[in-house]
Specification:
With 177 residues, this protein is mainly alpha-helical. 45% of the residues lie in helices and 7% in strands. It contains seven helices and four strands; from the N terminus they run βαβαββααααα. The strands form two sheets. The chain has a two-stranded antiparallel ribbon with strand order 1-2.
């Protein structure tokens, strides 16, 4: 946060990725720059990076020059009033940090979940099927796969009953009638 009209704060750019809450005054640019490099340890920064505020691309064969140019540019955003809270993750830097073992796989996955799209609670997964459609499909499945047992005709049923009755009465010739 600014302490006067001309000063500004330089927060650690990895605040949300690593939990580092270190920040520096605008007069401590070199210390801020060195601090950002310290997160990389011996592996060094990437040779390609993008601004976390405006998507300006920084490329150099010398990763330290690329990183310094990026940090100078980002310091300009802080000087103009931008806050770390309004920044976006730089996915290329995040991948580079994972590949170099600077961040854990869990931190990497957490960072990669970021999206600028507003949350919409009414969205459904791509394989979502409404209840009505499930019921319609189930009914069609039962219709197509049911086993039909033909009912005996009414006449055949009467004949069987008549045969049983005559047989019980002792009519030996029940079959012949």
């Amino acid at each position: 946060m600014s302490t006067s009209a001309n000063s500004y704060t330089l927060p650690c750019l990895l605040k949300y990725m690593t939990g580092c809450s270190t920040s520096f005054s605008d007069a401590q640019f070199e210390t801020w720059y060195s601090h950002s490099l310290s997160h990389y340890g011996n592996s060094g920064p990437p040779s390609h990076a993008i601004c976390i505020f405006c998507s300006k691309v920084f490329d150099s064969n010398d990763p330290l020059i690329c990183w310094r140019n990026r940090m100078n540019h980002i310091a300009g955003h802080f000087e103009s009033g931008c806050a770390i809270e309004s920044s976006r993750p730089e996915f290329g830097v995040i991948r580079d940090m994972r590949e170099k073992g600077v961040i854990t796989e869990a931190d990497y996955k957490y960072c990669m979940e970021y999206t600028e799209r507003p949350q919409c609670n009414s969205l459904r997964p791509h394989d979502y099927v409404p209840k009505e459609i499930k019921e319609k499909h189930q009914a069609a499945y039962y219709r197509e796969n049911r086993v039909v047992i033909p009912e005996r005709s009414h006449k055949a049923s009467r004949q069987r009953k008549s045969y049983k009755r005559r047989k019980q009465e002792g009519d030996i010739n029940a079959r012949c009638r």
